[in-house]
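Replying to the earlier thread about multi-chain prediction with a worked example.

Input:
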Amino acid sequence: MLEAKDLKSNDEIAWCPGCGNFGILNALKQAMVQLGREPKDILLVSGIGQAAKLPHYIKCNCFNGLHGRALPVATAAKLANRQLTVLVTTGDGDCYGEGGNHFIHAVRRNPDITVIVHDNQIYGLTKGQASPTTDPGFVTKFQPSGVVLEPLHSLQMAIVLGAGFVARGYSTEKDHLSWLILEGIKHRGFSLIDVLQPCVTFNRKNTHEWYAERVYKVNDDGSYPSGDKAAALHKAAEWGDRIPIGILYQMQKKSYEENIGLYDRIPLVEEPIENTDISGILKEFI
Amino acid sequence: MAHERTIKIAGEAGQGMQTIGLALCKIFKDAGYYLYANQDYMSRIRGGNNVFQLRIADKPVYAPRKNADITIALDRLSVDCHKDSVSPDGVIILDRDRFAVTEENILFRHIPMYAMAKEIGGSELFVNSLACGVLTGMTGIEYHGVREVLKRTFAGKKEEIVEKNLQAAEAGYIFAKTHFKQNHFTIKSVNAKESLLMNGNEAIALGAIAAGCKFYSAYPMTPSTSIMNVMAHYAKDFNIVVEQAEDEIAAINMVIGASFAGVRSMTGTSGGGFALMTEGLSLAGMTETPIVVVDAQRPAPATGLPTRTEQGDLDFLLHAGHGDFVRAIFSPGTIEEAFYGTIKAFDLSEKFQIPVLIMTDQHLADSYVNIDIFDLKRIKIQRHIISKEDSGLVKDYKRYQFTESGVSPRALPSWINEVFYADSDEHTEEGHITESSHVRTMMVEKRFYKKAAGLSKETENPKTFNIQGADCVLIGFGSTYGVLKEVCELSANRSVGHIHLPQVWPFPVAEVTGLLKNAKKTIVVENNAGAQLSKLIRRETGIKVDTSLLQYDGKPFNLDYLLEQIEKE
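Result:
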């Protein structure tokens, strides 16, 4: 039986003390223990940024690629070997900025992958510029008069695009986040978990204290209709005095792999290729 | 001199010239001729002027000629576009009832094509089948063969439509037979042996399938798109996933993801799309993920001439991607090289865990030639991975283990019992991020110098023809192969040799140096303005070639033009 210590990596963690990423790392490990799959069957794909370093701090297969490009890598790795449980750890800049187009189309495609966005509303690794999710008016060295762009409402966007699993977590709520991740993995298709993650160095607004006053679980009393798209859009828009966390929308639909008939065949990676016979095709060209 | 004819069908995009052109290829092939066909089309869906040009001969032919013996002009614009490229005894078939050509010209032959098509089929749409009948009638093909091929061409359409096409063709055939009795276009059939009729893109796609490619992802871009179409056509039969990516960046990253997970993967694009792929190319270099990328070149920069041809991406491909990493670049010049070269591209990419590029262009991509049936027995696929059986025994796996060859044993995730890390950052043997100068140096030497040393031993040798004692030697790569070969054969007044490079990187330094050392006069022929191949030869061998013959008008070299140029040199 897998235990949390089995998932420990020897890499030195390069995050700031107090970083919200630690909560996500711990929640992810907890989810994996509960998932009960072997680390060799789990693949973490990431791009660039602080969130993208996470796969190095946990003992699973890892592909740490380019800024914004985790989703196409993860999508195709899953297509090639559907026996892998594929997760993406990415940041708000990585996923919604640099990789925005891939995000849109990954949702449309609906591959069976789980995407955890470490959303700290700031560019940490480049030392404090606004990200696509930064609140308007937020002042940075690069935005000295405050951010004037509309924030990107990623959860609403995902719902509108047709994502089947849209959730928000909070890195300090480890057990809840761990549960969300597990539910995301179990959901067959694209699962988005946007995680509120305080950046203790560069985001002096959306701090641990700021979130502690506002965050509430969307379905504490079991009355929230998670399959209601209109309600989900409404809930996803809530941002200010109260910020909901939990599964905001869930609707099972066919995954990309199912839609292209991949589950009816052996995994692509198992296909023997040494004797691929194209003589039948050649006849069509005679 | 071969006995041959060149025929053209010209008209607007959307008039079905490609369908009928391909049918003509099959008719002539089945009738025992050798043929070469190329397409010149505009970047539009309807209108403009498109041409399907077909050369038929009693011996193998590989290149377009300057002039046509018979041109069928389906509209007025086609007359204007092509009346200056008619051979001395050639004709232009046109329909004076349909479009006003008031000028008299001894080349012109009137056929009321549109009225005949409408009378027979009830629609002018059948004019292309009628034109097909005219051409076959004029060149002495038996009607039976025409009928058989057209039946196959239109198979799947309603029986009534098939029948009307056949009737239109027959009417055209009979018209030609009764009105053009001189028969001077008739050429004799040589009973060419059973062969394949294929274009360059089809050969690349078939090569990929034969090589065991299981994942193809691309964003449609002329002239690479038909590779994707062919892959998709056979995807179900061979358990291949063909993915239309949202952009070229996604395409190459998908290919990397699929390959990382263990399947042979390929993408195809043209220069503009390849520009977007360069960061991914660098990622494949750093993560040592085998991928195959096809660049079907078209004239650039930027959007350039989207449907025309050029060989202007050589410099770009040599240097694409940031940083030092190893790559191989194939530059096939024939359908056979496109097919076997693609198979070898997969092998080398997996053997050295590197990106391999296949550089082709619109000219090769869209041109049809009948060729010998591929020798499938020649194909030996070797996986350069730890097999599933052996994977169970792997212990202390290091994805980037230092080795003598620079190539680390490649295990697949979930097949081995351990986990592993692949990283775009500089990394340790275990795949973890490092900033150690020592490890960095070792990794560069592994990825760059050591792999390069092994890879350079596997470069395809240059192909040579008639270079011993030749007055001048022509040097080319990629799609100029055919025209250069024929120039050598047809140069009457002097002895002309030919060196063709089916693989331009790693550059075959010793071989080319040896070949050029004693050459009397050297002429590099290339379809670009920058003399990119000439410069590469100079950079790698120190030899400055005597002349560069360059063409960058978007068209392939035609045989007659090049013959004239070589005579002048």
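Strands of chain A lie at 42-46, 61-64, 85-91, 113-119, 122-123, 129-130, 165-170, 191-196, 215-217, 243-250.

Feel free to reuse this layout for your own posts.
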